[in-house]
Specification:
mainly beta; Barwin-like endoglucanases; nine-stranded mixed sheet; single chain; 1 helix; 124 residues
Length: 124
């Protein structure tokens, strides 16, 4: 049996832009994606800490080093520039999960720089 578990998390990413006219998705700096072990076009759940909005979308790669976190398309109505987001990626894991299995969690500061890596994810 497989169970859906948190695989990767970007905690407190600050929204740098919101573009209603874009066709959809969330744009994330590729450096941040690499550190969070997320990949372009991966499905993610996004939670806005400021207003409680939750939505699913997919990742579009942003320019490395730009620290961009931009919500695009209809979901842009759910956020404001400066809001803190939690971006969650899930994966299917054998049940019971392997001993020691943990998600990769990066915590960002107010400028979207990595402040800490909470755990080093182990995938089996």
């Amino acid at each position: 049996m497989l169970v859906s578990m948190l695989r990767s998390k970007i905690h407190h990413a600050r929204v740098t832009g919101a573009d209603i006219e874009y066709v959809g998705s969330i744009t994330i700096d590729t450096d941040l994606l690499e550190q969070a072990r997320m990949v372009p076009y991966e499905k993610v759940l996004v939670v806005d800490v400021e207003n409680g909005s939750r939505f699913e979308t997919y990742i579009i790669p942003g320019e490395a080093g730009s620290r961009v976190i931009q919500v695009n398309g209809a979901a842009a109505h759910l956020v404001n520039v400066g809001d803190r987001l939690i971006v969650l990626a899930f994966g299917l894991v054998d049940f019971p999960p392997a001993e020691g299995w943990t998600p990769q969690v990066i915590v960002l500061d107010a400028e979207n720089n990595v402040q800490s890596v909470e755990k080093q994810g182990r995938y089996t």
